[in-house]
Design brief:
2% of the residues lie in helices and 49% in strands. The protein is mainly β and 174 residues long. The longest helix is centred in the middle third of the chain and has 4 residues.
Length: 174
């Protein structure tokens, strides 16, 4: 387990099979790649040992009990009190204002699939939250060009492609 903060460069952990992988750190969901970590990045990687990758985030929005127009957003991995890394998994544990949570990340068999599961537990009364997995596409060796992206639901997942560049690579998240 990595207790935070430890004052050093971010601790990194790799989950990979023959065709698919993700590099996680103690504070982020890192980046994900298919077939080749350098040339087939699905989300961006800085290659800077002292900065966290921010292409993938798990955001919890907690609404104020008396006014739903008031809320706070939390990056669950960055807000975690500690992270636990093991063979085939990574877990982030934390608590936020009466809410404890666990985020578990793992690859599913030999498939091109990263599973992120979240368990929430509230110690007080009822609360209102929303959870969002945000992705900044990379779709190759270099960061994707700025512009609009199309997200299309398919039978087995979501296909992401650049709206203006039809020949630009696409990724499928299942």
């Amino acid at each position: 387990a990595v207790k935070k903060p430890h004052g050093k460069a971010p601790f990194a952990h790799i989950l990979a099979n023959r065709n698919f992988g993700t590099v996680l750190t103690e504070n982020s969901l890192g980046f994900t790649f298919a077939r080749n970590a350098g040339m087939r990045k699905l989300t961006p990687h800085t290659a800077d040992g002292f900065r966290e990758d921010i292409g993938e985030r798990l955001i919890l929005r907690k609404y104020d009990a008396s006014d739903r127009d008031q809320f706070c957003d939390y990056d669950l991995c960055a807000s975690a009190a500690w992270a636990d890394f093991g063979f085939g998994y990574a877990c982030y544990y934390g608590w936020l204002d009466g809410l404890s949570y666990e985020v578990r990340v793992e690859l599913v068999g030999l498939h091109d699939l990263k599973r992120i599961s979240v368990a929430l537990s509230c110690s007080g009364g009822e609360i209102s939250v929303r959870l969002a997995y945000t992705v900044l596409p990379c779709l190759g060796a270099m960061p994707s060009p700025a512009g609009f992206y199309c997200y299309q639901k398919e039978e087995n997942g979501v296909r992401i492609r650049h709206a203006e560049r039809q020949n630009f690579a696409a990724a499928v998240f299942t």
